Amino acid sequence: xxxxxxxxxxxxxxxxxxxxxxxxxxxxxxxxxxxxxxxxxxxxxxxxxxxxxxxxxxxxxxxxxxxxxxxxxxxxxxxxxxxxxxxxxxxxxxxxxxxxxxxxxxxxxxxxxxxxxxxxxxxxxxxxxxxxxxxxxxxxxxxxxxxxxxxxxxxxxxxxxxxxxxxxxxxxxxxxxxxxxxxxxxxxxxxxxxxxxxxxxxxxxxxxxxxxxxxxxxxxxxxxxxxxxxxxxxxxxxxxxxxxxxxxxxxxxxxxxxxxxxxxxxxxxxxxxxxxxxxxxxxxxxxxxxxxxxxxxxxxxxxxxxxxxxxxxxxxxxxxxxxxxxxxxxxxxxxxxxxxxxxxxxxxxxxxxxxxxxxxxxxxxxxxxxxxxxxxxxxxxxxxxxxxxxxxxxxxxxxxxxxxxxxxxxxxxxxxxxxxxxxxxxxxxxxxxxxxxxxxxxxxxxxxxxxxxxxxxxxxxxxxxxxxxxxxxxxxxxxxxxxxxxxxxxxxxxxxxxxxxxxxxxxxxxxxxxxxx
Length: 517
What we know:
Blueprint: E1 48-53, E2 59-64, E3 71-73, H1 92-95, E4 101-102, E5 108-113, E6 119-124, E7 132-133, E8 146-151, E9 157-161, H2 170-173, E10 176-180, E11 188-189, E12 202-207, E13 213-217, E14 220-224, E15 232-236, E16 247-251, E17 257-262, E18 268-273, E19 281-282, E20 296-300, E21 306-311, E22 317-322, E23 330-333, E24 345-351, E25 354-360, E26 366-371, E27 379-380, E28 405-409, E29 415-421, E30 425-431, E31 439-442, E32 454-460, E33 463-469, E34 475-480, E35 488-489, E36 503-507
Antiparallel strand pairs: 1-2, 1-36, 2-3, 4-5, 5-6, 6-7, 8-9, 9-10, 10-11, 12-13, 13-14, 14-15, 16-17, 17-18, 18-19, 20-21, 21-22, 22-23, 24-25, 25-26, 26-27, 28-29, 29-30, 30-31, 32-33, 33-34, 34-35
Protein name: Hyalin
Region (Disordered): 1-47, 493-517
Organism: Dankookia rubra
């Protein structure tokens, strides 16, 4: 299973029950903050769905137009105080990588349990009437446990289920796969991705953009189309399905995908495929001798190239780039000289062929970096927590690391992320990919306290929603345009210090959703 910290991911209006909890304060950070937020050009944010717990209904889907008055419970899927779903973006193995996954027609699929049908796939279009059970795949109160929702790029979503009729489950049937366009009639089983084995099934998926999908299947790389009755083996890598280590499949956007695999000769190294046997080959043996470089974290730049991390045994785990040729697969920068490696994480594209990531050069600790795939264009953005790393004792945190994380591009060349500094605590930061343009957005808990922003979700138009705790209202949804003046709490959904635990912020299509109200 791919380390979710190195995947890139994808990384989800009328109200059903209007009540006071949905009309909480829209007070912003600082005096005079308005209840609405606008993009730098003056546009209002698009409407979006998310999950929250108002203290009465449990965690349920909500919808907002970016104002406190326009933020409402979408539907109480599981009546009463119990949550209807996990709505988690943090456990991709169990519940899928994102809470709400786009399908066709402005609809989003997600997992929920209404206490009648068990854990099943649901769908919403951002309205109460359009939020409903998609399919009862394990009829009755049993659960199908939908997981690993994967957009195919054509308005359809591939997902797996691990449950079944009473007395059956993963141990008996393994993982079954389904394809949906977000409608009941457009939801069907996809046997081409199944093995009939409880131990082996499809793993990583990469749509190639021409209707074909390459995917890992135990020790095999396979290819299929959404409508094919079966899949084809592109290449088998190892005698045992336990040691092929296939994974990190990442489409390059040109009909090819990069991934890592162990062919039993070179160790775990980067490979390339176009979905055919002839077009599948080792990119480069970065660590000759069979030990492998353990290439990981492939991130497509949109021009046929990809950045990734690898350990060639000389430089430690560092930043590499490939243009899908052996000659063009090269070390970008030895950020931390020597064999220790720079502890790279995330590699998130922010536009202009650049990625923002976390790295440790051995001098400044774990801090935000940027790269355009060249040595000269790879640099420390800011030493947010100044000073070298000093390990802490029992109960004392290590010093010198800002631990940048939850990096989300805004779509306008900027990215938001969470980071820690000793004067302002863990707060929201923004970067345009330059040192001068990297700064804290707002100190929501003034002083050394932390608002601990999380679940950052880009909304479009240079805006984002996120969850934060300002020290008085608990963890609630906030809106930002990347400036202090444009950052405010959206609503106090669960009044008091408990907070609503808002997460899964996903914009609704601008041209397809109806106005809220």
